[in-house]
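pipeline/complex-builder :: batch 7 item 3
reading input block
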Amino acid sequence: MSDLPHREALPPTNEPLRIAVRRLRWFRSAFARYAAACGAGLGCGFMIDEPRLARAFANWLKAIEVQRPKDKSERRDFFEFAAGLMLRELIAEMPLAATCAPGRADPASAAAFWPEGYVCTLFCLTVHAAALEEEFHASPDLGPHISSDIADLRQWWSLRENAHHDRSFPAGFLQMLLGHQPNWSMPDVFRARLEREIG
Amino acid sequence: MPGHQAPFLPDPVPLREALRGLRHLLRRGGETLRDTITGTGMTEALPRPAASLAQSVLREAEGIARQMDEAASDLAKTVLGGADLSADARLSDLDTGPAFAAVIYLALARVLDRLGIRPAFISESAALRALSATSPGADDAGTAARLTRALLDSRVIRDIGPEAGAETGAIAVFAVMLWLQSGRGDGDDTDALAAAADLARALAPEIAAAGDEAALAQLYRSWAPHV
């Protein structure tokens, strides 16, 4: 899992990705293309509710604006954190609906268990990886832990159940996939995460 | 050439507006007819021969209304001309008056369609009046805020469908203003306008809460880069 699937589905842009992703036109196109690519691989189609997607996008930008750190040295950490906020908003609005069961997915896989949540999560990881590479010439830590976490259905069951009761949970889930130990009491508060990691 | 007079060219805006008004009435009437035929059960409640006769007459009337609607639309588009949505349209075109009003008309029509609101009557004359009443602001966002108020005060959108919420007009105008301020390239207008409409719908609470021009201008500054 060190290579995220369907990265080529992200549309080209003349702007830096960190700018393009904050334009609804690019975000919408990227999400649609990514869902279509995943759907082709999984053997199912996805319907996109565009008003919900726009709401998730707007709420994501508002959340970023509120928490953006002034200290430039925290920029890279915040990049990663912003991907978790994106997942939080996508899961809360859930703009995707699979049109059928994913026939080509392993029945015991996360993609078969919750195709919509799986695609949203991989979309956030993929956009994050592409932006990180462009901005910092670095790749996210997608080592062996991510393979085991993504393969572990208990994690996805936990995500689906907990996100239902606590909208901040997906932000922690994404940080966990990226190799961090989230502050589960406030997984969507940047300052709380930073203080925990600094100790 | 002595004695030569330029041919009389009518002002196209009031004529277009009249034809659009006619089309709007026909569409509204057509919907009422359709509801009457299919939705209310009125004709079914009649005894059989009378019910068949009533349905047949109503369907014929609906067909006539549709033909008149198409004729009015064609005339408005082809004989009287109109504008295309242009990638070049910017708020700085305020002083182009009628051309800019035509762009606002088209953009509002597309936004309302995107928002699922139909039919509604959009007044190009009201847009023109709003433009002439608006002076440029300190920046594009300031101009957009002034123009938003002027467009809403002039009731640029009228007779909006009953399914629309109270704030739909404000959301639609906000979307067009966002679109005018967004960075757009060639062939990017439809996408940008759809994105502006979706974004405006997502920002409905903020739009409703923006009580004055300054707040509205700040909202435009914050969100125009994100279309």
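note: Chain A has one domain: 14-198.
queue -> next item
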